[in-house]
Amino acid sequence: MDKKIKLAFCTDGIFPYSVGGMQRHSRLLVEALATYNIDIIVFHPHQERLFEKFDNIREIYIQDIDKNKNYLQENYKYSKRIYEHLKNMPEHVVYSQGMSVWHKIKNLKNKIIINPHGLESYQAIGIKDRIIAVPFKIIFNRIFNRADFVVSLGGILTDILKKNITNYNTEIAVLPNGVNLPENKNIYSPKNSDLNLFFISRFAANKGIDILLEVAESLNSDGYTDIKYKLAGKGPLFETLKSKYKADNIDFLGFVSDEELSELYDESDAFVLPTLFEGMPTVVLEAMSHSLPIIVTNVGATAELVDLNNGFLIQKNSKSELKKAILNFIELTTEKKIKLSENSYNKIKDQFTWSTIAKKHIELFKNVEV
């Protein structure tokens, strides 16, 4: 009989009390894992109880970092507070989101799994961002080479980890992100007139929103004014870009609720994300679960999600490739667009639901010696 798994799940925040991809991942993964017969202790910085409906989850509050002080120093102190609990838990597999487990990590050998998610520090763009990234890379390399397993979301991220993990005892486990399928499957029906393209992300330079808008302007100049662009999200570039691009077919939606987001996916013909670097973007998973063809940059783990069977994978920072992909999509027959749609949905259903991802995690936990 297999020994019952005991899991210590360590994170710096849980959605919706903390907002971000890793924080949302923490909540959804823990909820999916709780459906298995394992005991879970979740360490997080929220005084509220977040998983009270699950009998097999216990929560331990950890004092949050002071966001007005140096992030790395505060993060290290946070890891020290978690360590004071972990040192007395020799039977638990330790799963760390980001830098949650760092202090005296060598003392926790033979049971540590680190999930660094998108590896943003290793994909920094521009001299300033690369300089800022240096201490993060040094610390992550130290953590990686003291862990038993480091999680890769797949694709290019696995190659980055291979270059930076020098300890032959550290293994890389490919565990992608997941998504919950919508209650009702979206029946894709391409429009005969307007083409609706949808983008949602933070309005920041690394998300490629300026690239998309320049391409939209170029296509408008070429007479393709029947393409409608719906752009959701906020961020530092939002007001500037909204003032600059005022075409009638470009709609800046700002923040949208989850209910509105679901409707926007279902109303669209394709999802576009010309991002410059990523992990495995949740918005692409969500768009695929709503049966959308995808146009996305080949960065991070996007190649795990998108290929010619369900969309277009383009090179980053290339306006010409993005424009070509949009035009190629326009020229597809209705039957081919529907096929891309079906392939997107089926790929999510077969490989990327949270129940599937949780099962892969359970298999990994069984391989960790405690």
Tell me about this structure.
The structure is a single chain. The chain has 370 residues and is α/β, with parallel strands linked by helices. It folds into two domains: 6-178 and 353-367, Glycogen Phosphorylase B (Rossmann fold, 3-Layer(aba) Sandwich), CATH 3.40.50; 195-351, Glycogen Phosphorylase B (Rossmann fold, 3-Layer(aba) Sandwich), CATH 3.40.50. It contains eleven helices and 13 strands. The protein has helices at 21-33, 71-86, 127-144, 156-164, 209-221, 238-244, 258-267, 282-289, 319-331, 334-351, 354-367; strands at 6-10, 39-44, 57-61, 93-97, 112-115, 149-152, 171-174, 195-200, 227-232, 250-254, 270-273, 294-297, 311-314. The strands form two sheets. A seven-stranded parallel beta sheet has the order 3-2-1-4-5-6-7, with helices on both faces. The chain has a six-stranded parallel beta sheet with strand order 10-9-8-11-12-13, sandwiched between helices. Helix 3 (127-144) links the parallel strand 5 and strand 6 (149-152). Helix 1 (21-33) crosses helix 11 (354-367), helix 5 packs across helix 9 and helix 8 crosses helix 10 (334-351). The radius of gyration is 21 Å and the shape is globular.
